[in-house]
Amino acid sequence: MDSPHEASVTAENFGLKGPRGWAFRGLGIDAGPGSLVAIEGPSGSGRTCLLLALTGRMRPTEGQAKVGGLRLPRKMAAVRRIAALGPVPGVSELDPAFTVAEHLRERALLQRRFDGSLRALLRPRAERIATAQGRIDAALDAAGLDPETLPKAGRTSVRDLERLEALRLSIALALIGGPRLLAVDDTDLKLSDAERAEAWDLLRSVADSGTTVLAVCSQAPEGAITLRTDSTDRTRDANGTDDDAAADTTTRPTTGDTTTEEGTADAFAETGRA
Predict the structure, then answer these.
(1) Which CATH number belongs to the domain containing residue 145 in this structure?
(2) Is residue 2 assigned to a domain?
(3) What is the pLDDT of residue 241?
(4) Helix H segments across 30-177?
């Protein structure tokens, strides 16, 4: 059983269908708290839809899943409260006109406003500011981002960030709320081999701290629990080795209806995120 600060992720025969086809279907996973789960597949194979379904942002069509002991789709709202989104195009993107400091202050303010207790809101202003800054500093440290190393420090605009810096900022923003589950889309997009290795090292460190991580990618790293959204017949176990019998980490789509780009697009449209 998960502790109040942990989140396992399990699913069986999990699928989501749009009017023109399946975004994904027949997927299963059994990942304990603090796992690094790589959702691997080509663009258009339903990777982002699966990420959003497992974080309570999209309603699945079939199968069952539990996140932190909360059953989907019945407890979607509760899952959203324990799961934070990193960068997800069209859902949780950085504002290019904002500076790094503005993003951090806004997220800390929202965290205090919507997730804080009444008692916390009644604390002296100086104490609230110090608490918010402490959360920001801890999140930046966990994401490996030091604003002082940026061209204009905290005044650096998001549009001027390198891809890996923007990824670190998005992850820091997500971690301010202390989530039990972190979801990241397009983890390895537009990264060099060295940057990709840095990104996975970052996500491993977040997982090692106890936060379960779901990360969409085109190629999963060694050691990650891998959940594939394409039609591959093979699986990869938690040690990164191929194994047809590793049904507890990933499974193949069922025969019949197949995953389609149209199904993925429809699934986004039905949730207002096309």
Answers:
(1) 3.40.50.300
(2) no
(3) 35
(4) 47-54, 76-82, 100-115, 118-121, 125-143, 163-175
